[in-house]
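Ticket #4471: structure output looks truncated?

Reporter: J.K.
Steps to reproduce: submitted the chain below (299 residues) through the standard prediction queue, then opened the result file.
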Amino acid sequence: MKGLRTFLYELKYAFLQMKRHIMLCFSAISAIGITLLLIGSILIIGLHVNYFSNDVQKDLSIHVILNENIDDETAISSIQSEISKLKNVSKVEVSSKDDELELMIKEKGDAFKAYRGETNPLSNAFFVYVKNASSIRKTSAQIQKIDGVSSTAFGGDSVTSLVDMLNMIQKIGLGIVALLILLSLYLIYNTIRTTIDSRSEEIIIMRTVGATNGFISNPFIVEGIFIGLLGSIVPYLLVHFGYEKLYESLGGKLFTPMFALFKPSTISFQVGLSIILAGALIGGFASLFAARKYLKMRR
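Returned output as attached by the reporter:
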C-alpha cells in the first residue's frame, strides 16, 4: 500500500507541475512531436531501404561459365566444392549446359531451340550467391582464377553501385535518427530543468525534512515520460493514417513490383510502437539526467 500511495503521489505531483508550467510543457510536447515525426519518417524509409537491399542481395548471383572440356560430374563437383569454400559464397547452384540453353531460349527467343540435344554448343555453369553484395566484384575475381572456369559475370558496376547507395542511405538515416534523439533529450532536459529550478525552495524544504533523492526526483521523471508520450500521439496518428494513404496511392509498390512496400498494418505496429516507446524513454531519461544533475549540485 505504501508503494501504491507513493506512486499516486508522484503521478498527482507530475500532473500538477505540468499544469503549473503548461506553456513550457506545450512547447516541449510540440518540439518532441515534430522530432518524433521526423524519426518515424526516417524509420519508414530505413525499413524499406533495408528490405530493398536484402531483396537485391538475396537474388544477386555470379554467373560462372566453365570451360567446354569440363563435362563429367566429378570435375564439376570438384570446382563447385572449391567455389563453396570462398569466404563470401553462401550457395552454389549447378546449371547444366541444357539448363543454360533453356535460359538462353527464354531470354533471346525460340530461334535457339534448334540447338537442343547433341548440337548444344554451351558449357556447364554455376550460379553463385554471395553473402555480402559489396564484395561481389572481389568474389567474382577469385572465382575467375579457379582452374576450369572460363568466365564470370555479375551485372557490373550498376549492381555494386545500387547496393552501395542503399547501404549509404541506411547509414545516413541512422545518423539523422541519432541526432534527432539527442535533440529530443536536450529539449525535455531543459523543460524539466526549468521546472526543477522553479521549485528549488520546495526541494530544499523536502530535503531538510528527510526526503530521499528518489522521492524528490521521481515526479519529474514521471512528468518527462508523460511529456514524451503526449508528444508521440500526433506523430503516431500521422504515420498511421499518412502511410496508409501513401500505400493506397502508390498501389503498394515503389515504381516497380520489385520494390514492394510494407503493408500499413506492419508500419503502424513497428514504427508506431517505436515512436511511442521512443517518446516515453526519451522523456524519462532526459528527466532523470536533469533531476540527478540538479540534486547532485545541491547537496
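Triage note (M.O.): checked the attachment and the full C-alpha cell line is present. The mean pLDDT is 81.
Status: closed, working as intended.
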